[in-house]
Amino acid sequence: MITDFSAAALSEAIHARDVSCREVMAAYLDRIDEQNPAVNAIVSLRDGDRLMTEAHACDEELAHDLSRGWMHGMPQAIKDLADTRGLPTTSGSRLTEHFVPRHDCLMVARMKAAGCIVVGKTNVPEFGKGSHTFNDVFGTTRNPFDLARSAGGSSGGAAVALATRMLPVADGSDYMGSLRNPAAWNNIFGFRPSQGRVPAWPVSDGYLAQMGTEGPMGRTVLDVALLLGTQAGFDPRVPLALSGRLDEFATVARARQALDDDPAATRIGWLGDLGGRLAMEPGISELCVEGLRTLAALGCNVEAASVVTDLDAVWKAWLVLRHMSVTTGIAPLITNPSKRELVKPEVLWEVDSGLALSATQVAQAAITRTTFHTTMVSLFDRFDVLAIPTAQVWPFPAHERWPQHIGNREMDTYHRWMECTLYATFAGLPAVSVPVGFDERGLPMGMQLIGRPRGDADVLRLAAAYETTLTFTGVGVPGTTGSAR
């Protein structure tokens, strides 16, 4: 089936004229009709006839040997936090459910320039807050491995659309694991790029708000690398954007060659549960250790590692800077008290906490973050990559807002159970979530591989080597088989 192809294989098939863009679009629209009612991953779906007309135009271009790029004619649904011209960008909130941007954000513009056809949006938690995709505009996105459980978030709709073969590749964004956690819970790959690798535009704050980033997800590492190559690259309007592009991921052939690497002697530091700091549900660490054994069999050197710093101070600094960031974006929307009733309590808590901050608290948090970055970077004197579980809990029941406890340990905030994802974020480091297997209920889990500063390509090369050992990637729904490579 066309929808079983990886994004790379689909691109090659389209350009070889083995399949037409119209055939591709029809296959994906049929797949969405079949799968989406159960999982609710794709929202604001565009008119099918209009999409088929756009696919026909892509076929006409190929008939004249014209290609827009590696995504030529490929369906793409955009995360519903990213401005997409002419399509509702609701952010999962009743405050903004009727907002229709007049312009594409930079990431969307780059993907369109590479040839994709935007078919709709992917569902998110309200304002992207929390790793559980539910909101009052579109409802709950459900995990295809167990429809009664959470799909993760905030790129939950994107992850589910990939796992169920409703998209060939997916974009997302990551603040506190939003590309990584749903990837782990949907048995795919999610990559958080280095801070500044994928510049965001337009933004209201290009200097202080530097913990969130857009990035790619895929059923294969090659697909992730290709989309990263499209999303990444300097833009002069973004003051802290990294220079240059990832040209090695610009085409399918070049990306495949760039990822072909021997991981032997790669030094991996296993952070585990950070010496007992992270509450962890049974079976998660054990699966990650199995994944590390696989890497060791490939010739990697795996050793225990620890982060020697005051992690309580890091958490508190994280909260301060997160409160500040959330407040900057959302507080102006709820100056009218009646608007507060339309916002979920977790978001209100972030905003109210942010409004109570002092300049001294923000400055001290920035200093703590700087110290933490130095601590994390120093680990790369000894290791090439750090490893840690992607999630601390298995996918939880979809009717719950967030896990209140892990074992006998109470979670004091709606995102404390995701603490394992903040360390790459806070240090601005690249991190990929790779699948590590399933529990006895068939629920998936992942492990993060965190790279040195700006080591995006190196992290993906290691993930690609690991991927060759897996027999269970790409299995999204009962009855499907692994994706074509």
Could you explain how this protein is built, in words?
- There is one protein chain.
- The protein has 485 residues and is an alpha+beta fold.
- The protein has one domain: Amidase signature (AS) domain (Amidase signature (AS) enzymes), CATH 3.90.1300.
- 35% of the residues lie in helices and 15% in strands.
- The chain is built from 15 helices and 17 strands.
- The protein has helices at 7-15, 21-39, 48-63, 106-113, 156-163, 181-185, 221-231, 252-259, 284-297, 311-330, 337-340, 345-355, 359-379, 422-427, 456-467; strands at 42-43, 75-79, 117-122, 134-135, 139-140, 142-143, 146-150, 170-174, 189-192, 213-218, 267-270, 301-304, 385-389, 405-406, 409-410, 431-438, 444-451.
- The strands form five sheets. Strands 8-10-9-16-17-13-11-12 form an eight-stranded mixed β-sheet, with helices on both faces.
- Strand 4 (134-135) and strand 5 form a beta hairpin.
- The longest helix has 21 residues, at 359-379.
- Mean pLDDT is 96; it is low at 475-485.
